[in-house]
Write a structure and sequence with these properties.
Layout (H helix, E strand, L loop, with lengths): L2 H4 L3 E4 L5 E10 L5 E6 L8 E6 L3 E4 L4 E3 L5 E5 L5 E2 L11 E4 L4 E10 L7 E7 L2 H7 L2 E4 L5 E2 L4 E3 L8 E2 L1
Parallel strand pairs: 1-6, 9-14
Antiparallel strand pairs: 1-2, 2-3, 2-8, 3-4, 4-7, 5-6, 9-10, 10-11, 11-12, 12-15, 13-14
Amino acid sequence: MKLQEMIGLPVFDVDNGKELGKVLDILLSEDWRISGVMLEGKSLFSPQIKAVLWEDIIAYGEDAVMIRNQQAVRRMDAEHIQLTFALGSGRVKELPVLTSEGVMIGHVSDVYFDQQLGNTITGFEISDGFISDLVEGRKLLPFTGDIVKGENAVMVPALSEQRLENR
């Protein structure tokens, strides 16, 4: 499954079937795990966001995210969120992907995770631009533990471009 596919999904409380919002973004940890989801509904004047931590998510699929109960929705200070998928200063989406040798292999288009493995990131979908995406398709860069999100780029090991797989 891709993180982009989770954005926009409704979030339901399994206790009473109430829809509590929609997924606005995905929260990531520094060790590249999904740490939670951010819900729509942030006030323009509030520095806080509504979020559900990963341990409170019971199930997720192509149609909805199911959480324990309404108490699982927490308020968090937006400034304390370091890494997200799509929004904010700590976002991964659209960042350039550079090897330690200075070779740019594209931009992060999406992030893959395996539902069987829970919240573990398994790879990055890499875009090399609109035309290249149409002609060649996007590529998958399998995840390795030495991938680092820097301030302005995702840094990958040398020769990572040789590990790209067609999607």
